Structure formats: structure tokens, C-alpha cells
Amino acid sequence: MARPDFLVTELAAKIEIIIRRASLIPSVFNIIEGGRTVGEIRMLSVLRNKYSILIDDSKSWTFRMPLFTIFSFGESEKGADIWVKLGPSERHWNILIRPGVVQRPLVAALAFIHNERYFRG
What we know:
Blueprint: E1 6-10, E2 15-23, E3 28-33, E4 36-43, E5 50-55, E6 59-64, E7 71-76, E8 79-86, E9 93-97, H1 103-120
Antiparallel strand pairs: 1-2, 2-3, 3-4, 4-5, 5-6, 6-7, 7-8, 8-9
């Protein structure tokens, strides 16, 4: 049975981002905004704690969630651009993104990764 798409909606601006599975092995998901594929998410670890996020074929991050810690981070070729702290419960992520980074598809990708970790991890 195919997994349903992951949908992130910004109601005020009527913007919709869809994350859809592109392949099962390796596990790859497309980020679709306005009917156009703007990026992809690749699972890099069977433990579901390391992902590659590519947006607009130019911005890429390796997002790591080390085991047994509440801190996660995403690194790009320019340095750490994303910091995440879990808490006060597993369902909450506090995200800090470096200024100047296109946030909408990146935040949707992080929401998808959190969903994968929380419900499938």
C-alpha cells in the first residue's frame, strides 16, 4: 500500500507544499511547490537519523539527528545553517535557521523529517 503524500499548507497565502515519495529503495521524496518539483529529501541512514535535503538544485544540507540527544543540526557547504532542539516533548521542535535561507520548502522538509522520526522511527 502506497503511503499518502505529506502536505504543508499556508492558508493565508494559499501556498501548498507536497512531499511525495519518488523511490522506495533508496528512500527519496520530492518536494513539490505550486506544481513544480523544487527539491528532494533522501534518507541516508537506515536508522532514520541522517537525511540529505536539496532545494532548487543549488542549496543542499545534510541533516543529522544524533541518537540519544535532543539537539540536531543541518550542515551545508557554507557551515551549519539549521539547528533544532527537541522539547519540551518529542512532539515539539524548536528550529533556528540562518537568515537569508529560503525557508518555506526547508521548513516543510524539516516537518516531514520530524514526522518520519516521530511516527515511523
